[in-house]
Amino acid sequence: MINADLHCHSTVSDGLLAPAAVAQRARDGGVTLWALTDHDEVAGQADARAAAEALGMRYVGGVEISVTWAERTVHIVGLNIDPACPELVEGLARTRNGRYARAEEMGRRLAALGLPGVFDGAMKYVSNPDLISRSHFARYLVDVGAAKSISEVFDRYLSEGKPGYTPHCWAKLSDAMSWIHAAGGTAVVAHPGRYQYSQLEFGAFFDEFLQLGGDAIEVVTGSHTPDQYREYADVARRYGFRASRGSDFHAPDDPHTGLGSLPQLPNDLVPVWRAWL
Ligand code: AMP
Ligand code: MN
Ligand code: MN
Ligand code: MN
After folding, report:
1. CA of residue 94 to ligand 1 center, whole Å
2. Residue 157 CB–ligand 1 contact under 6 Å
3. What residues flank ion ligand 2 with Cβ within 5 A?
4. DSSP codes of every residue in 256-272
5. Would the pTM count as exceeding 0.90?
6. Ligand 1, pocket-test mutation among 135, 158, 257, most atoms within 8 A of CB
């Protein structure tokens, strides 16, 4: 039985543990096939692979790319990628560019809401200065008592439409997918249940993803409820997508399920890893 966890984060993006420590946690959770998928960055891939192989896990290269589609943010996971592919590396660098200015603007918006000094505060939580994320802002705001939990920070300030939210233009879907494909990888829609699209928009999105050579969607993820496992299993069946499974682990104390401990994919779906094993 393969225990795959193909979505998680390290200090290279907005996770709290270094790649080798995430590998150890994956191994402790019983994971046998693993991918580290930091946001818009592959700098952790060599460490992740080395640690995984030393622990006896199979490793596939991974990344989670931020995309703007119909004016909203969508995440596309690239799996089994070659992290040295120049098209991918250059595309990711362009996607990261702008995070710093966005974070400064987020700081100004929060200051106007009576929360001064949040940019400087959040920076203390950032390990990769190229990758300042809303998560770092959220961790700081919880630690100074501005909210009780990360999810409360997002609900009150940082989610789309909330007063601290700062719109940003990420990569185009077609570009993100061509970088993944150039790197020999498989493109996977991350946590489709999280996007606030209408039925019509979802249909158009999946059609376009399919047309661009989209391979798979996440069905079982730490970001889905059990009802959403069923809903997106049906989407995978309808479109003929393969299915992926991943915790979206960020930190030992976050409410997401631990690495490797989510339910298995429904039996009739084709797992995204079948082609690699
Ligand atoms: P960014 O790439 O800076 O827009 O930050 C996105 C990250 O924020 C995601 O990858 C999650 O780690 C985190 N995030 C987004 N929404 C929520 C939420 N509602 N609760 C907790 N974390 C969230
Ligand atoms: Mn994240
Ligand atoms: Mn995501
Ligand atoms: Mn993620």
Report:
1. 20
2. no
3. 14
4. SPPTT-SPPPPTTSPBG
5. yes
6. 135
- For residue 277, the model assigns a pLDDT of 87
Average pLDDT, the chain: 97
Which one, of 2, 17, 76, lies nearest residue 51 by Cα?
Answer: 17
DSSP string over 29-85: TT-SEE----BT--TTHHHHHHHHHHTT-EE--EEEEEEEETTEEEEEEEES--TT-
d(CA 146, CA 84): 41
Looking at the CA of 62, name the nearest ligand: 4
Mean pLDDT by 10 residues, the chain (277 residues): 97 98 98 98 98 98 98 98 98 97 98 97 95 98 96 97 96 98 98 97 98 98 97 98 98 85 97 94
pLDDT tens for each residue of 217-228:
999 999 999 999
Query: For 146-192, how does the pLDDT look when each residue is reduced to its tens digit (9 = 90+)?
Result: 999 999 999 999 999 999 999 999 999 999 999 999 999 999 999 99
Query: Cβ(250) to ligand 1 under 6 A?
Result: yes
* Cβ–Cβ < 8 Å for 247, 260: yes
